[in-house]
Structure formats: structure tokens, C-alpha cells
Amino acid sequence: MLDNAIRYSPVSGTIELIVEENKQNQQVQFILRDEGEGISPNDQLRVFERFFRTDQSRSSQSGGSGLGLAIAKSLIEKHKGEIGVRDRADGKQGSEFWFTLPITSEKNKNAERLL
């Protein structure tokens, strides 16, 4: 996701990584915000599919196989997390990719191993 943010943002653009803990849901959320062209609502629905690339002409110039986000989704879901993309919440141009992962303590990890 960070590689995509760098690749598709303007040279002078800002990329932000925000990390938030949600103690109530026992999750940590990561938000990666860029200032690129953004992703259309239709493409947002498909961007995590294997081999999907948004704009073929733009994608062929910047490289990439269309597998990175599909792999990220698979890994995050295997760790009981969620992943998604949306327009920037602050109204600026660009996208926000986010993912959550559960927070587990060592005590909980040991209990899970026994099951």
C-alpha cells in the first residue's frame, strides 16, 4: 500500500500514515492517506481483486502486477483483520487505504494455542 501511495502521488504530494488504537474493539487501525488522483467508486469495489489495475494506460507506465493489494488483503484477513479503501475523509484529492488488526495479549495468545 505504501508503494502504491508513493507511485501514484505527485512528487510534491504528502503521504500520511496514521495509527490509532481502538481499545473498545481491541483493534489497531492503520490509515494510509495520499494525494494522488484518487480511485473511482467502481474501482474501489474491485481494487483488492487479483490482477486488477485501475487505469491500464497509467498502470503500464508505473509498473505493478495487480497482486499487491490482493496479497495484503489475504494476509490481513488471515490475521482476523479488515482492509478497505475510501476517498479521503478530509475532502482533499486522493485516497485512504485502511486496515485493522486485532490486539491480543500474550495471555490470549497462549490460550488460543491450547484450543
Labels describing this entry:
115 residues, alpha+beta, 5 helices
Domains counted in the coordinates: how many?
A: 1
Number of helical elements: 5
Rounded average pLDDT:
85
Order of helices and strands: HEEHHHEEH
Sheet with most strands: 4 strands, antiparallel
Over the alpha carbons, how many angstroms does the gyration radius reach? Answer: 16 Å
> Which architecture would the CATH scheme give at its second level?
2-Layer Sandwich
Catalytic activity: ATP + protein L-histidine = ADP + protein N-phospho-L-histidine
Domain Histidine kinase: 1-105
Enzyme class: transferase
Keywords: ATP-binding, Kinase, Nucleotide-binding, Phosphoprotein, Transferase, Two-component regulatory system
Account of the protein in words:
There is one protein chain. This protein has five helices and four strands; from the N terminus they run αββαααββα. It is globular, with a radius of gyration of 16 Å. It has one domain (2-114): Histidine kinase-like ATPase, C-terminal domain (Heat Shock Protein 90, 2-Layer Sandwich), CATH 3.30.565. It is an alpha+beta fold. The longest helix has 11 residues, at 68-78. The chain has helices at residues 2-8, 41-46, 56-62, 68-78, 106-114; strands spanning 16-22, 27-33, 82-87, 95-102.
